[in-house]
Design brief:
single chain; alpha/beta; globular
């Protein structure tokens, strides 16, 4: 999945993947991470998700990474914030009270730039990447977050029935990427109402990685 694919999706407002409210699975299962108010959470490939506003409202600090600058501008607009913008090598950093988003290729983001986080929340990153990129991504995420605990949401469906994204990431693949580094616990598995994109039956799984 080339970066230009996502830039064009945002440029042409082809963002059916963008939800109009905070993810109910996030709201229901976030407490499993046992974080404290003021802890810092990393949200990879965050877009302009309303999940960030929800995390801020719960008293957490948020860092994110997003390829599309248009999405990040919209995020700050919707949060009602005017960001401070700075250049950080190949990335651009948007900062506001308790929120910091790095714009550009996530693989250019280093631990020294991201800083310390107490957890990561992956709702839309792993499932957005094709199979050949997922191994690289999961290793990079572990490196830049120092293997911080993670709440991971992913879909499981017959990949032959529909082209991604979002792609299917079944249980055995989650284990392949993460079992050597985390204790894995599936918190819930729910059927996607009406099917994924209305095209095929799918389940959405919520994993706790500690």
């Amino acid at each position: 999945m080339e970066p230009e694919f996502w830039r064009e999706r945002w440029q042409h407002n082809e963002i059916g993947f963008h939800a109009a409210e905070a993810n109910p699975l996030l709201v229901a299962h976030w407490s499993a991470l046992s974080l404290a108010a003021g802890d810092r959470v990393f949200v990879p490939l965050c877009g302009k998700t309303l999940d960030i506003g929800w995390l801020l409202s719960q008293g957490y600090r948020v860092a994110g990474a997003e390829l599309s600058e248009k999405a990040v501008q919209a995020l700050f607009d919707e949060l009602g914030l005017v960001p401070d913008i700075s250049e950080e090598g190949a990335l651009r950093r948007y900062c506001g009270p308790n929120v910091e988003i790095f714009v550009g290729d996530i693989f250019q983001l280093r631990r020294s730039l991201l800083g310390k986080v107490q957890a990561s929340y992956d709702r839309a990153a792993l499932v957005a990447l094709p199979a050949q990129m997922r191994q690289r991504y999961t290793g990079h995420l572990r490196e830049i977050t120092a293997t911080a605990p993670q709440l991971l949401l992913c879909f499981d469906y017959d990949q032959r029935a529909m082209e991604g994204p979002p792609f299917s990431v079944p249980d055995d693949e989650v284990a392949r990427h993460y079992a050597d580094h985390y204790h894995l616990r599936k918190l819930t598995s729910v059927e996607v109402a009406g099917g994924l994109k209305g095209q095929c039956a799918a389940r959405e799984n919520v994993w706790l990685l500690v």
